[in-house]
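Need tokens for this chain, all 207 residues.
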Amino acid sequence: MGRQSKRQTGMRARIAAAAARIMAEDGIDNFALAKRKAARQLGALDTQALPRNDEIEDELRAYRALYQADEHPRRIDELRRIALAVMQALEQFNPYLTGPVLKGIAGPYAEIDLQLFPDSTKEVEIFLLERNISFSTQEGRRYSGDRARAASLISLSWQGVPVRLAVLDPRDERLALKTSPAGRVGERAGIVEVGAILSREHAGKER
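Here are the structure tokens for all 207 residues:
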């Protein structure tokens, strides 16, 4: 490896560690924002040195395990329990938990990300309206490979926690979906899986 490549690799690692620290300490869940802040702090101008999201995730897990070993697991458990409650309420729309809450890297002010696969977006909106749950909507995209899939994004609050529902075509339920064409396939878990995760975590604490 040449001297320039070693410098690039070293800077990449430093940016990943700094971005993870920013996300953990400032409650930021936006990887791109954390990367930019970290790069500015370190004086890195070459975008080639920016780390991938999974590199930051590894650093974030290590940071939380070292410096937030008590409060972070409690908050993740709380967010997952709220997520499960929302999923159970929306069970008829085939909900899946995804994003930082599922991965266990969410910050204290994180948004719960759910995917729904109803017959139509209107069904979800009517469901929320009938229960006097305030929400806002916008159009979004999810990707299978490099192919865009239309998604309605519904934002609401549940027990004081922000929740974002990505409402997708039921035919896309079996597809591996990403948030961007170049991104990684997002992990997701249904009601049974999320319940099992919480049960395992609870059993581990009792030992």
